[in-house]
């Protein structure tokens, strides 16, 4: 407990020095709305970096993905990816955290205390990054009154598009809500629930069986970074959305904080049928184990 308090104090002091310009911050990040507008205005793809990907760059494991030097090096290269046709998002936490609620402010201050040098080492100082919070725009916010409008704009990105959702077997993107109801059609590729990086070649093969007019929406952890880049290189539009569906669920439920979603417990055909998810099951075209 004492160690945590000391860490929090050090993190707050460090952040204060950057926030007041005493220490120089060289990383530029667009806002959530600027990020959404860029995705609406263009046909750019998007790859997202959250705190977990930064931890993996430093060699740490995540709950659903074991670390490796290969993954760490690949993530470093993607973070500095030079093609402007691929938006790279990182947490918009460098200029201010005043729009975050108290717990979120402390989390990101602590994160920067240990990871700021990783950002400074591997982010391109001449590049403008976009906001990772585009897919996590609800939980962090101190004022949540604008979240509904942001999600309404996000839903226009895939409006009247044929989309392919690439996700884990527990994720259920858009199931039980209307996040993807604006799409013309939905098909799904279901991926391993953990350590999906090892299945990237098989997942990529399944994706590239589709025509290039399909919009790929990826929610498969660290593997999504590598899949997004490869799909982009091959002429597809791909959006790495992470846990957007979970944030949307919290938003429509006006959740006061994080909450578990029952649909994340359903994996078998029987369980999905019992939950009334027959449409979801029909949308699954490929399962990769």
| Overall 3D shape | globular
Overall pLDDT score: 94
Strand order across the largest sheet: 8-7-5-6-9
Q: Describe the main β-sheet briefly.
A: 5 strands, parallel
Number of helices: 11
Run of helices and strands? HEHEHHEHEHEEHEHEHHHE
Distance between the termini: 42 Å
Percent of sequence in beta strands: 5-15%
| Number of DSSP E strands | 9
User: Which structural class matches the secondary elements?
Assistant: alpha/beta
Approximate helicity band: 40-55%
Short description:
The protein is α/β, with parallel strands linked by helices and 289 residues long. It contains 11 helices and 9 strands. The mean pLDDT is 94.
Set down the secondary structure blueprint:
Blueprint: H1 2-19, E1 28-29, H2 32-41, E2 45-48, H3 51-57, H4 69-79, E3 86-90, H5 102-122, E4 128-131, H6 147-155, E5 162-168, E6 185-191, H7 200-207, E7 215-219, H8 223-233, E8 237-240, H9 244-252, H10 269-274, H11 278-283, E9 284-287
Parallel strand pairs: 1-4, 2-3, 3-4, 5-6, 5-7, 6-9, 7-8
């Amino acid at each position: 407990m004492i160690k945590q308090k000391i860490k929090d104090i050090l993190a707050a002091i460090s952040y204060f020095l950057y926030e007041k310009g005493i220490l120089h911050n060289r990383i530029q990040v667009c806002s959530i709305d600027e990020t959404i507008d860029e995705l609406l205005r263009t046909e750019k793809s998007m790859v997202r970096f959250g705190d977990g990907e930064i931890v993996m760059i430093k060699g740490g494991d995540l709950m659903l993905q074991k670390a490796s030097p290969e993954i760490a090096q690949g993530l470093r290269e993607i973070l500095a990816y030079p093609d402007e046709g691929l938006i790279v998002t990182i947490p918009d936490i460098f200029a201010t955290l005043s729009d975050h609620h108290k717990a979120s402010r402390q989390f990101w201050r602590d994160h920067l205390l240990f990871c700021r040098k990783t950002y400074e080492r591997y982010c391109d100082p001449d590049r403008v990054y976009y906001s990772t919070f585009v897919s996590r725009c609800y939980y962090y916010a101190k004022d949540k009154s604008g979240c509904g409008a942001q999600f309404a704009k996000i839903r226009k990105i895939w409006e009247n598009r044929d989309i392919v959702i690439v996700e884990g077997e527990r994720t259920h993107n858009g199931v039980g809500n209307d996040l993807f109801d604006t799409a013309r059609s939905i098909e799904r590729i279901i991926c391993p629930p953990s350590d999906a990086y090892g299945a990237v070649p098989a997942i990529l093969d399944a994706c590239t069986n589709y025509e290039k007019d399909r919009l790929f929406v990826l929610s498969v952890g660290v593997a999504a970074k590598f899949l997004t880049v490869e799909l982009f290189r091959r002429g597809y539009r791909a959006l790495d959305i992470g846990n957007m569906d979970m944030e949307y669920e919290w938003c429509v439920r006006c959740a006061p904080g994080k909450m578990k979603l029952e649909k994340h417990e359903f994996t078998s055909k029987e369980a999905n049928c019992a939950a009334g998810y027959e449409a979801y099951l029909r949308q699954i075209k490929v399962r990769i184990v």
